[in-house]
Amino acid sequence: MRRVLWIVAAAAIAGCFALSSLGCGGVAIADDGLVEYDGDIEHIFTHELVYDTAKAFAPDNRLRDCFDKDHLTAKEFGGLLDGLYDNGYVLVSLDRALDDAPLRLPTGKKPLVISFDDMTYDTVDRGCIDKLVLVDGKLCDHTEHEQTHTTRERENISLLESFIERHPDFSYDGGRATVCVNGYNGILGYRITPDCKVSAQRMQTDIEQCKTLVAEMKRLGYTFASHTYYHSYFDSTSAARLEKDCAQWQRYIEPIVGKTRVLCYPAGRHDAKSAKNGIFKRYGFDVFLCVGSYGGTDHERNCKDARYIYRKPFDGTALRLYGKQYAHLVDTRAIYDEKRFRPFSYKGGYH
Ligand SMILES: [Zn+2]
Fold first, then answer.
1. How far does residue 63's CA lie from ligand 1's centre (Å)?
2. Which residues contact 115 (CB under 8 A, 6 or more apart)?
3. What does the pLDDT look like over 1-52, one tens digit per residue?
4. Maximum distance among all alpha carbons in the chain?
5. N or C: which end of the chain has fewer CB within 10 A?
């Protein structure tokens, strides 16, 4: 596990951000009952979920600190979806949010983009699932340790799908989440690259299964982003290494998930003025996902050849620290999972 969320201190607090300037102020209700939305679009993200809190937060689990700080539990994610829905949010795809065409929504509804980072599932039997699978055409979460078990209650995507089945109006125009994957240990629980160090036969089997899964996810409306092949932190990665990272992504991951213009900076760490971004741009990336409640720097907002989009993290740390800043989205106190080993009153940050 490799992530330490980095949030610009000033950024962590400062209100909503404009993802795109949508609409032109029309508030008249048309015959179809829809109104043109004329506000900011929220963007939130989570990592893979902790479903087994006893295992994930056990004192002898060396990952428990990371699981607590950087992840939601399955119960919390379910509460988050309920809260967002009750507060009038509807899920729009990142592509739709990037489109300058006006969004027309039912009166009182507000658009929201969701992304999921990592989803590698390289922590078998520590409280997260092993992989996502398709069963009878439905996206499910799957574990094989102890006994084979498949549900729709333990991971963000399976929970989101069952939520949309119950509340179809939560998904605007079929919108789904953007999944930001790496490559060094495969994606979505499938060991599809040589770095996974599995047999050639296993790799081939996983590639075939993963292609089928991804095709169904894309059919449903999910989109994919590069979270860099090696989960490379921008500031500590040389230009040569970043070049290799992009080449690895293009060689091993792009054939599975397809071309994408979206690059999600690991831990949000980035410098939009760095020449290293030119490497990403040469590989076709021009939408950059960052971390924080922030509108971006002047340089980022005025950038002509790239979009910088800030996302609010949802994890243990954010639930504890950003209750006021997130109140319009959800009551973080109400959804906080008391099975965490840290109380809601704990005030430690990401480091
Ligand atoms: Zn990450």
1. 15
2. 43, 44, 45, 94, 177, 178, 179, 180, 225, 264, 289, 311
3. 444 344 333 333 333 333 333 333 345 566 678 999 989 999 999 999 999 9
4. 61
5. C
Architecture of the 10-23+36-335 domain:
Alpha-Beta Barrel (3.20)
Domain ranges of the chain: 10-23+36-335
**What separation in Å is there between the alpha carbon of 1 and the centre of ligand 1?**
9
Who contacts 142 (Cβ-Cβ below 8 Å, separation ≥6)? 129, 130, 131, 132, 133, 148, 149, 150, 189
Q: Is the whole model's pTM more than 0.85, yes or no?
A: yes
Nearest of 181, 150, 168, 175 to residue 249 by alpha carbon = 181
The CA-to-CA distance between both ends of the chain, in Å, stands at 15
User: And the tokens for 299?
Assistant: 């340089």
The interaxial angle of helices 156-166 and 74-86, nearest 10 deg, is 40
pLDDT, tens digit, 9 for 90 and up, residues 175-229:
999 999 999 999 999 999 999 999 999 999 999 999 999 999 999 999 999 999 9
